[in-house]
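agent> step 3/5: call structure_predict on target 'MurR/RpiR family transcriptional regulator' (Paramicrobacterium chengjingii).
agent> reason: downstream docking stage needs a structural representation; sequence fetched in step 2, passing through unchanged.
tool.input:
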Amino acid sequence: MVSQVPHGENGMTVSSRVQASLPDMPAAMVKIAEVLLETPSAPIELSITELAERAGTSAATVTRFCRVIGYSGYTQFRVGVASDIGRGDAHESWRADIGREFHPEDTPREVVRTLLNEHVRAIETTARLVDLDDVQSVSRAIATCRHLDIYGIGGSGVMAEELQARLYRIGVSAHYWQEVHGGLTSAALQTKNSVAIGISNSGRTDETIQMLSQAASAGAFTIAITHESTSPLADVADVTIGTAAPDPYLQPDDLSAKHSQLMVLDLLYLLVAQETFADTATRLAASAMAVSGHRRPQRPKRKNDRPTLRIKEPTE
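tool.output (status=ok):
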């Protein structure tokens, strides 16, 4: 039996706890220990499932490993790792949370140049990845469907809400779901005349996979928007629309991922609008008129008005 390191033992880093328990660990836990000793920041960057996959073991074994070295679960273990990194090496903590592409001493010009390069790269890569025939068939299905469900969690949920708002304005009966119980209920009510979209940067978000899978089982035409074409989300979709993979050296990686997703959502919106051009024009005009009374008129520019701050594109 593996002896546990006491939870309240002070002064022990995660690495020292792992080293202390290593001689008594079973083979499956040794694999996890080897990953952690080689890459101490791995738990900060990986989910429990991803860490298990990297170590060639199961999520349940990772949980048991955490308890063996003195943590009640993976969340507490990650906090311990983050705390160790923060105490031991401020630069390593910076690299884990901000990314290797940015440095604490960078000038604002250097920061904006890096951001610009990464975001442009993400959009250009997404444009090359997109299969226009697939996107065209998806837009036609959306334009003629009885109902559209859009699923997303966290940052991808914001993207789901954005797509729903745009499509609803041009007459598409759509609903977005960021909560799995409501999403599963809606997914179960879909039919062969429905369309369902799951948005997940990694394609491995369990809740999104569950909702899209339920919609597929109900007969809906399903679409995955993800950068991972071999992910579990892509496996349950009829069509997968690819986005650019985030740069592993840029954190948080969802900065560029959001622009990739928005590129695809904009494309879908515009193609659906083309499919229903006459009706779309009427609905956009009607909705613009409905809210026009809530917009203040633009006042004339005066001589003493302060100029708007403009950031010039960085140059070498």
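agent> step 4/5: record observation. The first helix runs from residue 14 to 21.
agent> proceeding.
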